[in-house]
Specification:
alpha/beta
Length: about 325
Amino acid sequence: MIQTTLQKPAAPAIARGGSWLGLVLKAALFLAVSLGLTETFWRILQYEPADSDIRHFAKLRKAADGDCDAVAVVGSSRVRYGLNPELLARSVPGRRFRQLGILGNGAMPVLEDLANDANFQGRVICELNPAHWGGPYPFSTLPEALAYMHPEVNGAYLETVLGERFREHASFFSYNLLTEAPRIVQHKPVPEPERPDRFTRFRDLGPSVNEPLIRNWEHAALEAAGRMKNTDRARMTERVERWVGQIRRRGGNVVFVRMPVDGRLRTLEESAFPQTQDLIRDVRARNMPVIDFAEMPGHFRCPDGSHLEASEADRFTRLLAEKLAATGFFN
């Protein structure tokens, strides 16, 4: 008996390479369309791509080198929103004020950078904030804007360079929807383009926006107070004294400024940082001048507790310039 075995026809070969290529192309197309729609959304809301603040910082930081008439303005967002370089320049002709405040960072890393730079021969207006007067040293992580000034051969640095250049061409990369949502919902004006001097005006957007900000600053102050309990404040003061000495030996000088704080946040900070007045006395005892907003006449309004409203920033700037000029700081 002859048995006949029927075989099923062979299945067609799967073109694996073609399938993967098609998937990648579809994903790329989907991504391109999504980014295009997102960018269109921001443009319709009249948000234009923002300049790279990191690259802007680097430009002003380099401009301060070799300039005996340069005055570096150093500190956190309180300095960035609170000291107007244009008004300082009007009040003190002949000096070039460089706004080097960095959002979310203290003044100490930038002050050390200026002190260790033999090319810097100018003066420094440096924020004194007890929440930033300490921490691990040497600084384990530099602020991104300052790290950009010191190129490294690694992926993180390359990512920063490419990302900052891309930011200048894409609105969706320049803004955060979560932070801008209150402004959009309330039909508030879009953020102003960054000024050539990096000064940023703080706008009062009302209680619905200010209250969450106040709670955020209160939380940050309590966290900082916890960290400061384990900080050797005297050791940091010694370092600061050494940095100031380096700057003075090159013909420059440094003055420390405690920026205004207001309302509930001021009450909380004075409780959380009881060492503030001792710190100010210690710094002054080492022949380093300190201007404390609490010793100046009048009240300075900060809508969110932490940052001077635009007109108040102008007023504080003028008063500070007058006080510094009277002490001979710029001579």
